[in-house]
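Workshop exercise sheet. Pairs work together: one partner reads the sequence aloud, the other fills in the structure field after running the prediction. Swap roles for the next sheet.
Pair: D.N. / O.F.
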Amino acid sequence: MRLFIGIELDDRVRTAAAAAAARLRSRMEGADKGLSARWVPAENLHVTLWFIGDVADSRALEIDAALRTGFDASPFTMRVAGFGAFPTSGPLRVFWLGVRAGSENLSALYAQTAALLIPKGREEDHRAYSAHVTVARIKATSRGSGPALRRILLHESADCGECRVSAVTLFRSRISSRGATYDPLLRVPLQ
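Structure field:
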């Protein structure tokens, strides 16, 4: 079973994020005819706290039990706004929407998630956590188009609004020829 832990967006922010991503897609494809990207459908937009990957059912139960112990965090407000890309230099791999308010809270939840999962055998991610909503995964761009695409990201307006974060969600990711679907398996309320 393929799992990850994330934060769900409310319907209003998800709809605004999908609309902003559609505008970005139009601009990017107009600027680079060689751009090949897999754009994330609206229903899959979220903030990832921890990607787990494929695990056996027994491991999934251990992860579920660890998450059920809860988080030492109160509900908070998160604002999704502004575009960016990973990596910050070199070939583009991901277009994202940033988290402008609530990123400190998300970093704290990430650290608590690590504390719950690393003792269960999950490998630590040595990159700094950066809260974001992935809107596209880049397969290819035209040679030399990176700087122009990065300029578009800087100037494309995207303020998707605020939503209340009141739970951490364990998702199951199912991959098919039609793309991925994410099923919430467990929602752990923030107290």
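Discussion prompt: The mean pLDDT is 94. What would you look at next?
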